Amino acid sequence: MRNDGNKAKKKTSISRETRIKEFKESLKEFWSDFKQVKYGIVGLVLLIVFILMMVLEPFIIPFPEAGERWSDITYWIDNPRSAAPAWVNWFSGKKNTVHEFLTEPELQVTDTPQFQVVEAEFNYNYKYDIPPGELTLKALGKGNVVVEAEIIRPDGETINLVRKNFNTRNETEIRIPLGNEAATRIINFGREFESTENSRNVQRHLLKPMEILFSKAQEGILVKPEPLKGDYRINVKAIIVGKDSYIKDPEVVVSGKVFGFLGTDDARRDIWSGIVVGTKWAIFIGLLTAFVSIAVGIMYGVTMAYFGGWVDSLMMRIYEIFVSIPMLPVLVVFSAVFSPSLWTLILFMCVFYWTGPVLTVRSMALQIKEETYIEAAHALNASTGRIIFKHMIPQLIPYAFANMALSVPGAIVAEASISLLGLGDASVVTWGQILHGAMKSSAVLKGLWWWIVPPGLMIALLGMTFAFLGFSMDKILNPKLKTR
Amino acid sequence: MSDVIFELKNVKKWFPARRNLGQLLSGERKWIKAVDGVSLKIKRGEIFGLIGESGCGKTTTGKLIMKLMEPSDGQIIFNGEDVTHLDKERLGQYKRNVQMIFQDPYASMNPRFRAVDVLTEPLEIHGIGKSKAEREELAAKALEAVKLTPPEDFLGRYAHMLSGGQRQRLATARTLILSPDFIVADEPVSMIDLSTRAEILHMMKEVQQSMGLTYLYITHDLSTARYFTDRIAVMYLGKIVEMGYADDLIDKAKHPYTKALISAVCEPVSGKVNQSKEVPIKGEIPSAANIPEGCRFHPRCLYAKPECMQGEDPELQEVENGHYVACIRYKEIEEMGTSWR
After folding, report:
1. pLDDT, chain B, mean
2. What's the pLDDT score for residue B269?
3. pLDDT for A339-348, tens place per residue?
4. Which residues, including other chains, have CB under 8 Å from residue A169's CB and lie 6 or more apart?
5. Lowest mean pLDDT among A356-370, A376-390, B18-32, B53-67
6. Using CA atoms, how far apart are residues A165 and A145, in angstroms rounded to an integer?
7. Under an 8 A CB cutoff, do B109 and A380 touch?
8. If you average pLDDT over every residue of chain A, what do you get?
9. Per the CB < 8 Å rule, is A15 touching B155?
């Protein structure tokens, strides 16, 4: 008896091993077929890129909370408004200042019995032609704090910028827009070098403090400034009075005209972060919708074919009703009335997308149903469920995979369309939502192409990825379906 | 228990024919009479051959016995029990006792199933064996029974990795695994290479003897039927025209159709190869939708007389011990001997 048991165990393990081996072999075979299809490889590479984007999201976006705080304007406050991508500098003769955060200054702390002095020195290398829009001094502080700031230019000139007093009970963010606060001082600095005539003629409100600050100290500094490139030093001195008072995390934000990899929108949001965060949603929406609708479609088609007769006719009529309803208008009305969450939106898309594979599956299942092995299963008294799930559906799996990949783009585009119309789930950053924002603030008219092209391109690329994968799988797996 | 394991009493299977508008309006119904009143008794432990041309209804008879379709009329009796119409539970029991081997061993197994899946499926369906391991052990034993040894080599293979003969052995193993009483073998060797045919039949016979099985062997091939079966029934257009012991029936065929079938068998023996053969039959098998009046064989029969062309179909009558013929002129034909021309 015991011997028998051992024998049986051995057999099972053998068959499991062979199964794994066979699986590996079939995978290898699939891969060698797949390699032949060029666009399949393109699709695969793109898919890997998208997956990497998804996985590495926290490491590749400068604003890690972009997903959760997309509509939170305070999160984006330090960014420039409607800034072009940084790389446009490569293509223009006059270089725009790149938006920069000057962190980690050289700190020096001096303690006296009455107060504490914190000195922070920021070094900024200015190498552009068009000066920044603003220099903002930022810090977290509490209690009684006096902040002083001066700037030492590469030519040795020093300008005292501000001296400000803060008195807060709780920790607050101290923000000092230096250009704005010190406008008069900077303009006066400029007037020292400008000819009297020019100085008199120039209109005060047309002068830009930052332009003066970053220009050569010479005649024409007010009317025709020339950029002074080199190392600027911003010295910040904070005098802290009182025991509980403190100041920390000082930072200077150089508000540039160009920003990051993909620029910002008119709400100062980093578009690159939005794009990366949107990737996972696009893939999620696409795959979930495709999976659910294909699963339903296959079940539906197989059921139709298996039962035949009036069941088939009835299900066919129901199918025809769903096919003949135009999805987008209904989806738009539905979204407008119910303002759905992402989940309801996916569910609703599934309600329309399941029809995709039905007819093909039905015809394939009708063919499979007549196979002798189905008859053999009937002769063995196999139940309907067993015949459908063990004998018929496994034959349709390759088709299902190809079809699934092919219906991913549709779902992504549909979600994007709904979002573009402003009817999507606004709490989720999808590419469609980004496009909706662009449309709402007429980005096209304003020429903010970096707000429109990237999300649009990403939708197209992701759609292409799955379309390529689907086509190549279709090409590889379908002939196999016909051979036994 | 009686000696007779299986009995068909005047079993009919009529399929409705497609009607044209006129027939639809007049309410006229036409039927394709695939099986048109078959009665036979199969004794326990024998191998019963059912022979006929393609389209004569022999496979339909097999399917009726397998309960893959419901008969239009008549009675099917298995082990003394009327099984014509069964409820779900008893149908499960019945399908455990009656198994079928299909003609095409390539098509009768799911291409995605390995041998072990093919063999454990009936066990799973009928709830035999407690664990997977136990079922796999039974599967291995079944493979041994059909001489696919060592079973370990075959359990993990897919059907497409087996030769035709091996597949039909596997198909046989699948039917044996439930230890049935009765097996319908629908042309089990017609798709197999000639060289392995005898081997498979021999294996089937061995299994039959060791397990005390009863076979219904459906075929169009007289030579294997004579080799394999104990008794033979010849079917023509949905009806049995002659029935008797295998040797008796073939050596002393009485019905003109049986005679025609016998003389149509090719002879590979030297000296007879080039001998031009006159097959004593004319025309093609008529459509089952339009069965001729009188004796259904008369349009093709070379002996047909006016009385054959009208009235009722001749009934099967016992002419010798266990030899039945459905022909009103069998005696005259016998007297004519071979000089029928």
Report:
1. 83
2. 65
3. 778 888 888 8
4. A142, A143
5. B18-32
6. 6
7. no
8. 85
9. yes
Contact A85, A261 (CB under 8 A): yes
* Tens digit of each residue's pLDDT (9 = 90 or more) over A425-437: 888 888 988 999 8
- Chain A contact for B141 (CB, 8 A cutoff): no
On whether the CB atoms of residues A116 and A154 are closer than 8 A, the answer is no
Sheet holding B4-16, edge to edge: B31-43, B4-16, B73-78, B81-82
Domain boundaries, chain B: 4-112+158-336
Between chains, do A380 and B121 touch, taking CB under 8 Å as contact?
Answer: yes
Interface test with A, best of B89, B99, B101, B108 (most A CBs within 10 A): B108
The reported pLDDT for the residue numbered A14 is 53
pLDDT tens figures, B64-74: 888 888 888 88
Residue B88 contacts A, CB cutoff 8 Å = no
Interface test with B, best of A21, A372, A481 (most B CBs within 10 A): A372
A379–B156: do the CB atoms touch at under 8 Å?
no
| DSSP letter for each residue of A216-281 | -SSTTTTTS--B--EEEEEEEEEEEEEEEEEEEEEEEEEE-SB-TTT-B-TT--BHHHHHHHHHHH
Residues 6+ apart with CB under 8 A from A92: none
Q: Which residues in chain B are contacts of A29 at CB distance < 8 A? A: none
Greater confidence (A270 vs A113) lies with: A270
Q: What confidence category does residue A290 fall into, taking pLDDT thresholds of 50, 70 and 90? A: very high
pLDDT at A50: 92
Question: Per the structure block, which two tokens stand in for A223?
Answer: 């009317």
Which one-letter DSSP state was computed for residue B219?
Answer: E
Contact assignment for A11 to B136 by CB distance below 8 Å: yes
Residue A343 and residue B322: Cα distance in Å, rounded?
76
Nearest beta carbon to residue B156 from set A4, A14, A395: A14
- B246, pLDDT greater than 70: yes
Domain assignments of chain A as residue spans, ordered by start: 18-58+272-482, 96-258
DSSP A94: S
Nearest to A379 among B100, B111, B116 (CB): B100
pLDDT score of A321: 93
Measured in Å, how far apart are chain B's first and last C-alpha atoms?
49
Alpha carbon B57 to its chain centroid, in Å, reads: 9
> Quick one: which of B238, B179, B227, B161 has its CA closest to B199?
B227
Q: What is the pLDDT of residue A481?
A: 47
Q: Do B160 and A484 touch (CB under 8 A)?
A: yes
Chain B positions touching A371 (Cβ under 8 A) are 107
Tokens of A225: 């400034």
| B107: contact with A, CB 8 A cutoff | yes
Determine the pLDDT at residue A2: 42
Side-chain-side CA neighbours of residue A372 (13 Å): 15
Fold of B4-112+158-336: Rossmann fold (3.40.50)
Assigned CATH class of A96-258: mainly beta
For B161-213, write each residue's pLDDT tens digit: 888 888 888 888 888 888 888 999 888 888 888 888 888 888 888 888 888 88
Number of A/B CB contacts below 8 angstroms equals 82
Identify any residues that bridge with A235 across adjacent strands, giving them in sequence order. Answer: A121, A150
Provide the CATH topology of domain A18-58+272-482.
MetI-like fold (1.10.3720)
Chain B environment of A22 (Cβ under 8 Å): 156
pLDDT reading at B338 higher than 70: no
How near does any CA of chain A get to the CA of B121, in Å? 9
Phi, psi angle pair for B7, to nearest 5° = -140, 130
What pTM was estimated for this model as a whole? 0.79
Hey, which residues 318-337 in chain B have their CB within 8 Å of chain A? Answer: none
Identify which of A5, A373, A383 has the shortest CB distance to residue B108.
A373
Closest CB from A15, A372, A394 relative to B156 = A15
